[in-house]
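Query structure, 220 tokens:
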């Protein structure tokens, strides 16, 4: 794969954006509903939230495990929110919607020679409905830590192959996928539970390097 990328660099420039590297424990903080009283926001996709519909498909439309997930913040954004109470100007997706979106547009780019990375038409069903996005600016939004104690297994990363490295879409900001491990979306990676206080949440299953799939917290 690296040989292929090296050959590509000799032929044309490759734009690569910097993305934050995020640990699993950080991601786990965002697999619950937003605490609106504390200033948190819900996923901008609202009732169309991937987290909500994944739970509905598994447990039924009226399940207490189905919920709109909290807006996902990068570590720097979360630190700013805790320090000042300020959130990004435009409300964003939750973690599951972000992973679904990234996996979706990569699949389009990988399988369609006509895929245009700046076209909102091809991705409008999955983009932030509050702003016209393109994968040039929004995917990947971050990279995931792998191989570390607080990282993910390499097997849950999005698989980026050599064929895609030959396409034009791999030469814009999406090229970060060539270098940065990114968790792919797979609905079987999550289970949905309800805490003893009635709060629903999602748990990442069999994704950690050191597996620690906690169930419900103890009730007091």
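Result returned for the query:
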């Amino acid at each position: 794969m690296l040989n292929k990328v090296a050959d590509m660099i000799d032929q044309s420039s490759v734009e690569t954006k910097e993305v934050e590297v995020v640990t699993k424990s950080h991601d786990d903080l965002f697999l619950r509903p937003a605490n609106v009283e504390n200033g948190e926001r819900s996923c901008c996709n609202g009732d169309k939230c991937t987290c909500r519909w994944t739970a509905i498909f598994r447990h039924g439309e009226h399940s207490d495990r189905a919920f709109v997930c909290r807006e996902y913040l990068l570590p720097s954004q979360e630190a700013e929110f805790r320090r000042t109470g300020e959130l990004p100007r435009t409300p964003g997706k939750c973690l599951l919607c972000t992973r679904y979106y990234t996996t979706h547009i990569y699949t389009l780019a990988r399988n369609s020679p006509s895929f245009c990375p700046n076209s909102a038409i091809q991705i409008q069903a999955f983009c932030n409905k509050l702003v016209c996005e393109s994968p040039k600016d929004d995917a990947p939004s971050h990279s995931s830590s792998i191989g570390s104690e607080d990282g993910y297994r390499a097997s849950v990363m999005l698989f980026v192959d050599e064929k895609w490295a030959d396409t034009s879409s791999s030469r814009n900001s999406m090229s970060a996928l060539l270098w940065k491990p990114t968790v792919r979306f797979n609905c079987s990676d999550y289970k949905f539970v309800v805490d003893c206080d009635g709060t629903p949440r999602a748990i990442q299953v069999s994704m950690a390097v050191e597996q620690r799939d906690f169930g419900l917290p103890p009730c007091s």
